[in-house]
Design a protein that fits this description.
about 180 residues; alpha/beta; 4-stranded parallel sheet
Length: about 180
Amino acid sequence: MPCRKYFKMTGCIDILVNNAGIAGPAAFVWEQTDEDWQRNIAVNLTGVFNLCRAVIPYMRERGYGRIVNIASIAGKEGNPRMSPYSATKAGVIGLTKALGKELATEGVCVNAVSPAVVQTQILDQLTPEQVTYMTDRIPMRRPGKPEEIANVVHFLSSEECSFVTSQCYDVSGGRATY
């Protein structure tokens, strides 16, 4: 059962939403530097791992928690000239599935959301050609809105999400149909 306190050093952590991410430079694999690769891994994947590892003991102790990791359709399909980003978001999906299974009997549900292109500041890191490439693959022919992603995260973070774990929900305007 959630404790419903605000987290302080002696409070509770009911929900973790891992939503940090960087796109990195638009470049072919052979043009990516080691620094570009390592920075993507550090922010997009290692950050998710570290935060999960930090809160899980508290959630396990109480027998309740919700973890929602923000991945990307790029992690399922791969986007050209975004290999580090695509690889790290695929890693987030794999981490989510494994962790959800590890915690399945402990009252902690772990899920991911894989948005297609969403109208956020991360688009400022991309070229107009990259944004067009991604948007053209969305049957709705538009980027998603942050609140459309938030609605899915809201359910996955709720008490009603009691029999859903290790899943990856696509919020893609129809881009992902598998």
